[in-house]
Amino acid sequence: xxxxxxxxxxxxxxxxxxxxxxxxxxxxxxxxxxxxxxxxxxxxxxxxxxxxxxxxxxxxxxxxxxxxxxxxxxxxxxxxxxxxxxxxxxxxxxxxxxxxxxxxxxxxxxxxxxxxxxxxxxxxxxxxxxxxxxxxxxxxxxxxxxxxxxxxxxxxxxxxxxxxxxxxxxxxxxxxxxxxxxxxxxxxxxxxxxxxxxxxxxxxxxxxxxxxxxxxxxxxxxxxxxxxxxxxxxxxxxxxxxxxxxxxxxxxxxxxxxxxxxxxxxxxxxxxxxxxxxxxxxxxxxxxxxxxxxxxxxxxxxxxxxxxxxxxxxxxxxxxxxxxxxxxxxx
Amino acid sequence: xxxxxxxxxxxxxxxxxxxxxxxxxxxxxxxxxxxxxxxxxxxxxxxxxxxxxxxxxxxxxxxxxxxxxxxxxxxxxxxxxxxxxxxxxxxxxxxxxxxxxxxxxxxxxxxxxxxxxxxxxxxxxxxxxxxxxxxxxxxxxxxxxxxxxxxxxxxxxxxxxxxxxxxxxxxxxxxxxxxxxxxxxxxxxxxxxxxxxxxxxxxxxxxxxxxxxxxxxxxxxxxxxxxxxxxxxxxxxxxxxxxxxxxxxxxxxxxxxxxxxxxxxxxxxxxxxxxxxxxxxxxxxxxxxxxxxxxxxxxxxxxxxxxxxxxxxxxxxxxxxxxxxxxxxxxxxxxxxxxxxxxxxxxxxxxxxxxxxxxxxx
Lengths: 331, 362
Prior knowledge:
The complex is a heterodimer.
Chain A: H1 2-7, H2 15-53, H3 57-71, H4 74-89, H5 93-123, H6 125-140, H7 143-154, H8 158-183, H9 186-194, H10 199-232, H11 241-250, H12 254-279, H13 283-294, H14 312-330
Chain B: E1 4-13, H1 17-25, H2 30-35, E2 39-49, E3 54-59, H3 65-72, E4 80-85, E5 88-89, H4 95-105, E6 106-109, H5 121-125, H6 127-132, H7 136-149, H8 165-178, E7 183-187, H9 195-212, E8 215-220, H10 223-229, E9 232-237, E10 240-245, H11 247-252, H12 257-263, H13 268-271, H14 274-277, E11 293-295, H15 304-309, E12 314-317, E13 323-327, H16 329-337, H17 357-361
Parallel strand pairs in B: 3-8, 3-9, 6-7, 7-8, 11-12
Antiparallel strand pairs in B: 1-2, 1-4, 4-5, 9-10, 12-13
């Protein structure tokens, strides 16, 4: 093998140099714009963090637990209260909320960018074919590599953390939006066309609402990826749990490392379970569930009174299984 | 002027469709064209649907009937030929005008209902009006009216998933009725339903049609359904219309073995009427006054019982009680067995307009 390599010496492709030069050039040209962007993002995330930090920790913990109980189940609410209480007790609550603020801001940004891109990809197979390798690259490039240009453009701190998080978390938002829209029953879309609907009316009235469970599964994935990247962002000075993890590594502090790591896990599981529930069922069934919770166990939906159609609950379950499968195939 | 018409209509899928049309027009056999990669779905179809009639297109899957109906409202663009809705030519219509035409002139009922699962039954029924920009109060009023017509007035607040299949299709029907268009396209509308429910839907459609008089193009793969519903029936095979005519014409004289092979399963007693099998009444026949009576449009199925208890024959009468013919046991048996024993003199009588509801409902 070594012999072959000597026989056919390939010239060195200056790939790294080219990328460096390109990044330098972009930094020179767009420097002021990046600075303005950084100021804006920084102010937004700081403001958001301040708001999250305003209520007393235990009150906030109870509020989050109650939200979990209404959206998902009483059991989930109780476990949430205990787990979040643990974060408060190990004195990582501030860092926990800083990370939460970063994730939520990045998720909103990724959704605002990703959902329209997903819609474009669903409408044109050519666009989809162009997006595919780009999204593959974004998802498989080792996340640490993003940190380098982010620091070059935005120096260190929360802003480059935010930017890398958005880039890293974007792909599932685009992909599952596309998948969701493409999976909408062709006949229903055809009905919209047959009654004279414009493509805008069909998108808003039929495709987006019917794709919503899949899109929400995408948002769920965006949040999970954002969380892992937000922790990695600790390396370049993004505040929050990531910074604590990095501190623990550099001082070989096993205790702090475990506490910070476990806090990340708690945040991840809480957000995952919460957003997974958002994806399932219509707003009405969610509302019915919430009402049932308040009425203590009277959660009948009034479905299937004539005994001839599938029960609504079974439908919701099937739908949920559907998008879980969809999500799994894209992971 | 026909409400909907098609002239020399072709739809070819696959590469170089225009080329395939030219070869078919020159008389090349379908198999040769298909061997070169093109898939002709509709081949040289002429169709004329008169206002207020139910025109059924019957064919097996792959015969091109679904492609045909989708060209009538521009969901698919014909490869060649023309489609007219009223006096509007569809080909070359600007997208905006095509949308307006669909909103105002054409509605559609789908095989799998195609309801919006996230909206209420009432919102579904009013969907076409919402697309058209009708204000909320007005469209809810008309949606509720249409639901009332199909007997679902009390289900307005339900979601489609909470309804049975038959009820869901009635919502689909209400959506088309509420839109108020004069032409309704029904694509295998009852095919996904259980036989008993399908039968009920057919009855309901015929009953609604009697009061509303819409122009309906109905697609089905079930010849029994075609014969039951259609004022006229066109039978399609491999993209072509192999026979078209009234159900009785097709039953009496199938154009080829293909059509004849379907007729074996047809319930002749429901398609043929007294007018189709009666013989001229001879004035000297004193027994006429003792015979049970029926109108010309009564299906054979409803003549059997009176004939059995009344001595074997039934007198066919006009509305004013005048006797126009006699149906004998022999003529009924001949017609039911498929033998061509029908006398030519009976053709002139028996307009559907003079028929009481009970007779048609069977």
